[in-house]
Write a structure and sequence with these properties.
By secondary structure, the chain is α/β, with parallel strands linked by helices. Helices cover 30% and strands 22% of the residues. The protein is built from 17 helices and 23 strands.
Amino acid sequence: MTGVGEHIATIAGVRISGPGREFLIDDEPVDIFIDDGRISDIAPAGAIRARGRVLEANGAWALPGLWDNHVHTVQWALAAERVALGGAASAAEAAAIMAAAAPLPDGRKVGSGFRDAMWPDRPSLALLDSATGEVPTYLINADVHSTWLNSAALRLEGFEGDDGMLREQDAFEISRRLNAVDPQRGDEAVREAGERAASRGVTGLVDFDMAWNADAWLRRVTAGFAAHRVEFAIYPHDLDRAIRAGLRTGELHETADAPDAGRGLIRVGSLKVISDGSLGTRTAACSHSYPDDSENFGVLTVPTAELAELLTTATGAGLSVAVHAIGDRAVTGALDAFTVSGAVGTIEHAQLVRHSDLARFGRLGVVASVQPQHALDDRDLVGRHWADQTSIGYPLGALRDAGVELRFGSDAPVAPLDPWQAIAAAVTRTDDGRDAWHPEQRLTRDQAIQASVRTAVRPGEPADIALCGYDPLSASGADLRRMPVIATMVSGRLTYGD
């Protein structure tokens, strides 16, 4: 018998899918041998005697461990204890849900996941106050770029808002405060969330939590976290601190106190800069105005000159960058800043891209870190709020054709942390029975998997492996979404399965 934490030396009777499959002459079962956390050999099933701890695959499909390249880790982990508002069809319904909700142990009511951009009514302070009274109540937009507070919460936090809505930096500050729970409680939520991620084949994620993540991840690993690899981001307000600490992108970040299972898991990631707003809050910086307000073209929260300066500073300190840019004006500004600074890294989201900027991505070597499920979640919003935009919306295929490297993520908790949802969304461009939305932007299964992994199943590669019940390269869209994951391992150590 095997169990979580066991080090696997032989995976017996497995078929390989995804990167690494191209080296095999057929799809007959093979045995994978692992030494010191890496794949040391692959041979026809039974040709070489099994050694060490054996995991019987029974013909399951092995592919490289999956990565989610955009996660707000603590917010995602805490979402499990917050009131789900994704099903609220109006402001009145969302207020009623919060009225019936039980307060958290600290006396506050917190809900998340509402999408007011399609509501027939508008959020208002009077509506929320009438439903929730003097209990401090917070509703977080699905895109996290706006929050709706009642008067009691506004007073408690020291904010004012005529309609109770706080947007962009004020909304982020509210989220930071709500996420700043007792470390023991937060770390336990992150541990449980990491186990859920491992059950979907995840072996790594990029953490964009809006906090000083360097100390938080050392603490979690020391306490026993070992579910997956992590690259953690740094935000501009901590950039000087990161430089003083000598943090450099890609370097291991660990302490001598970490248990063996946690060693090698945590690395320094990028400087994260949020340069514009979002579609759901109608603040993404666009070329054309939003239909309900001819003066609203969204907001560039970081002007291009300031962005270029930040990127230059980060580059000089050995940090790559991850620039949040959703609207086409923001994407252009981000590419301008990459050009001036010589920075390397990603543009996060890239949901609306000018035709002329597609080739610039490729020329500059900027990676498009995108969330395919957002295209399906937002297709009705696009029809209402971006109908007059002339740039390309959610351009997966167009970016691919321009030679741009794609990396997939979820933006959890905005979308579920499940790479199979992203893969299915990219392949099918539909999830609700409707025809594919802009089918010309679809990717092949090979391309979608490549955007979701960092390694390959071949000798010399880290033994970060997911065993699946279906072949991802032939599974239907529905089967991709419900992909059975049998086992997950990081460096040959089982993180899910038995």
